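Pasting two entries for a bug report.
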Amino acid sequence: MSSVAAKKREAAPAANAPMLTTAEFEAAIRAVGAERYHDKHPFHHLLHGGKLNKGQVQAWALNRYCYQSAVPRKDGALISRVLDRELRREWVHRILDHDGFGDEEGGIERWLVLTDGLGLDREYVQSMRGALPATKFAVEAYVTFVREQPLTVAVASSLTELFAPKIHKERISGMLENYDFINETVMAYFKRRLVQAPRDSEFALQYVLANAKNRDEQNACVEAVRFKCNVLWVQLDALHHAYFEPGNIPPGAFRPGKA
């Protein structure tokens, strides 16, 4: 056996290993965020630190719209598989939070207020024509994951929301302080998520802790959080490569000043 294979075998959880305690399971989930949540990505440090120009911020907001617009589809895919009425009743508000309901405009509309404020054409943003290929692939991978994985694992993939309030606070303060084209109005999406994300993540966390029935399921839930972190991370990799390193914007993607 090669040394690489041996190391992988040592790192892999043993088959039929005893279940983690609830505290250990929660700690394992939270450790993923501490290791690889996208607040650690260099592009976010540039964004929050005022190191990007307006075109680069536009590219970030336009590409992130792809993810925002996919969230209700992801949650709809999950709900379509749920037999438990109470779980459906709890989860459906996530769709309404993003799509809006009645006089509540919803998170997608608040994101479009951000892209409007950045000077991007709304129809162009909504068409997603200018989004990076990697963004589109990552977002659809997430929707597919939630549609196809076991229900508890699919729920676990949402647990990156546990780590979201910190990044939202950093984004609000950093962007307001560092960019003269950012104001309180266009940051409304993030302010609302400071309330919504803790509520959503607490429910999902308790559901996962209660419904992972063996060690394999616990491990799969931790891997789901890792997968979701990767979905978020790779989107920033693509932005950094295309818009911070000169000459790497792919054909058909948004070009600052030319949309």
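Entry 2 (this is the one that rendered wrong in the viewer):
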Amino acid sequence: MNGTDLVQLLLGGLAMGAIYALVALGLYVTHLATHRVNFGQGDFMMAAAYLTIATRAAKLSLPLAIVCVVLCLALMGWLLDRVAIRPLDRKRRSTVGSYAWILTTAGVALIVQNVIELFYGKSSQYSPPLFSGQRDNVVRFFGVGVFVEELLVIVVAVTVVSAFYLFMFRSRWGKCIQTVAFNPEVASLLGIHTQRVKVSVFVIAAVLAAFAGVLIGPLITVNPQMGLIFTIKALIVAAIGGLSNPIGIFAGGLLFGVAEAGSNYFDSSFGDLYPLLAALVLIAIKPAGLFSERAIDVR
């Protein structure tokens, strides 16, 4: 492997790792406030990718397309809470009711997948490039060719993660989320509308999936079945980084993405298998994650 291949491999791995991290952060914020996650988070990202294709085919400008995708996914997040999460609160004391959200969120994921298949079929689709005129636009830095899309996807993903971090730890609503995560009863006594907070975390998770879906299109071909594997990888990334540490989750996503890219470079047939096995071994050795000790667990 020469220097050019190494740089391209790292950039490709970092770009995919940033996507995994965005999906995993959606799992983090819902688990933080409600102790539940959306098992269709990857399918929400897939839906956002197809919505991006549809809005660009309708000749909408990129900013307007992103706004449309984000609004649609925010609505999906709100509906998920109203349809698949909130009705289960009445059954919280029963054994089945405590874990029924796994089935309901997975069921919503299947509905989303089938709706997309109804319009696009099961074949893969190509999304137009976001930031350049052609799909494989290469620029050179010091003689090393890098793909513009991969470079800018990393920049945008880091910007979104930074905004998410500032929102969670600097904004008033972010502090409300942490208070609800610590103790919902105390939060209610402090005047915090806990139900609105719980709804908001699913909306936030859906918005993160929207950005991941917008960014993933230029990197890979999208298909209606891709959601499950992204959900699984996001869960693994969250476990690697520590489910209580958003910065750790982002770092875990980048590490997993680079490991996956390197594994596929040396063995394209089973390249996805080795990082998953290594992650499972790591989780077995360190169940709390690599960066869990650096985070303040508010619960």
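Dev reply: Rendering is fixed now. As a check, the viewer should reflect this: Residues 16 and 257 are 5 Å apart (CA to CA).
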